Each structure stands twice: as C-alpha cells, then as structure tokens.
Amino acid sequence: MKRIALVTDSTADLTEEVIKKCDIHIIPLKVRFGEQEYSDEELTSEEFYQRLTKEEELPKTSQPSPEEFGRLYSQLLEEYQEVISVHISSALSGTFNVANLAKEKFKEKIHLVDSKTISLGMGLMMMEAARNIKEGQETARILDNLLKARKNIETLFTLNTLDYLQKGGRIGRVQGFMGSLLNIKPIIRVGDDGVYHTYGKAHSQKKALESVVRIFEELTKGRKPTRLAVAHGAAQQAGIYLMEALENAFELKTTVFTQVGSVIGVHTGPGTVGAAIQFE
Fold it and tell me: What number does CATH give the domain 2-151?
C-alpha cells in the first residue's frame, strides 16, 4: 500500500499539471445557477465567468456532503494507509466541518487541516505536503510542517468590485461598501484568522496591482520567499502583469499561474487578481 494520500477541495485552484505531479485528490464544491447545479470541476473557468456576468441572480455555492467525503476517504484507504485532508478556511466555508463529520468513521486514519486560507494559498500548502511525502517524512512531521507553512504563506488579492463579496455574504472584515460606487479597488489579505481583511485600496486596477507588489515587499522583510503562485478571475492580462511584477521584485519564478475557479469566483467576481507567496 502507498503511505499517505493527499486530499483538498476544488477551491485550492490547482492546475491539472500540479494535481497529477503531486498526486493530489480533489473533492469538488458545487455552484448552482437557478435549478442547475454543477460541481466545481464541471464548469471551466471561462464558461463560469461568461455565465456569471449574464445572470441576474448571484449563483449559490455549497460544500460536499459527509457521504461524498466518506466515499472518497473509503476509496483512498483501499490504496493508502492514511489521508491528509486540507481544506478552505473554516471561517469562509463549512467544508472543513463536513470533512470532520465524515472523519468520525475512519478515526486516526484521516488527518484534517484547516488551511485558514483560500485558493492558491491552500494550493501552496498542498505542494509543501506533497514534497514532504516524497521525502519520506512521517505523518506527524508533515502535519507540523503544514502548520508552519500556513503561517509562512501570505495571500493577497484585489477585487474589481465589492458587489460579489457583499451579495455572497463573504464580506468578512472587508470595509467600505461604497467602494464600488467610488470605483475603489480594495486590496484584500487573508488574515491569520482565515477571514478577509482590507489591507489597502487604489483608484484603478493597475495601481491596485502595484500596491499588491509593494505590500508583499513589506511582508517579505526578514523572510526569504520560496514559492510564488498567481491567479486571476477572467483577467488574464492583469494576472500576467502581476506575475511578471512579482517575479521581478523577488527574483522568483512562478510555480502556478491559473484562473480562479467557480466557487471562489462567485464571491470575488470577474477582474479579481491575486497571488500567494510562501516564505522559508
């Protein structure tokens, strides 16, 4: 039997290449447009954002059921001895709590980690765990390293509008509902508490992206960056701009460049651009 299986949910926004290379198993969240429900994997990012901008009503999102988690865990434990399962911040989704319910049947064979972050911040944690498994580290050490990685990953993104966070009820501690009216682009940081916090604002997307780079530079002081991941929501050119600016600032090649998936995209909307950096 293989030793340790890695599980995360689709909000990690990992590319197929990384998923395959790191042997990561994905459990999808779901998005519902009216009466039509799709798993996060059924809709491409392009299809989702095209539809999102046309819909009058904001689609709903939901987490997997305990039964779906249970089926995945059962299947994996036929091939692996243990499972490490890392999920979107419990302050933003019920996914972690559902996984915890499913875990009861399997007891010590399932190890759950609340990432306290979203998207590629969680993706970087999965890549760290995959590296640890490949090195042959023990489960307890890998779990400890994941908690350390969680503290050493910064996730920042800028929104084109606050409308989607507000309508979706995920506003967290992001302030300034007048931002959309004033065309202000907020810079959001995912805090240690796993909630969104305003970290800055700008009057244009370009200035917001410049602020993201500057804030990362401030957060970097005294720390060495080791991995960079960049994602965008239907804003490829802005994503490339941020990627190149961060690569130049930190002399670091991007590990992952991708689009934000549908479940995160429901709450952040088109025009979102962000990055996650892991530090030693």
Answer: 3.40.50.10170
Residues 6+ apart with CB under 8 A from 141: 132
Kindly report the three-state secondary structure assignment for every residue of 199-249.
Answer: EEEECCHHHHHHHHHHHHHHHHCCCCEEEEEEEECCCHHHHHHHHHHHHHH
Instruction: Give me 115's structure tokens.
Output: 């990432």
Q: What distance in Å separates the CA atoms of residue 154 and residue 279, rounded to the nearest whole number?
A: 8
CATH class of the 153-279 domain in this structure? alpha beta
Full pLDDT tens readout for the chain, 280 residues:
899 999 999 999 999 999 999 999 999 999 999 999 999 888 888 999 999 988 888 899 999 999 999 999 999 999 999 999 999 999 999 999 999 999 999 989 999 999 999 999 999 999 999 999 999 999 999 999 999 999 999 999 999 887 776 665 555 545 554 445 567 898 999 999 998 888 888 989 999 999 999 999 999 888 999 999 999 999 999 999 999 999 999 999 999 999 999 999 998 999 999 999 999 8
Dist. CA 138–CA 154, nearest whole Å: 26
Task: Tell me the domain boundaries of the chain.
Answer: 2-151, 153-279
Q: How far apart are the first and last CA of the chain?
A: 32
Report d(CA 150, CA 23) in Å as an integer.
Answer: 20
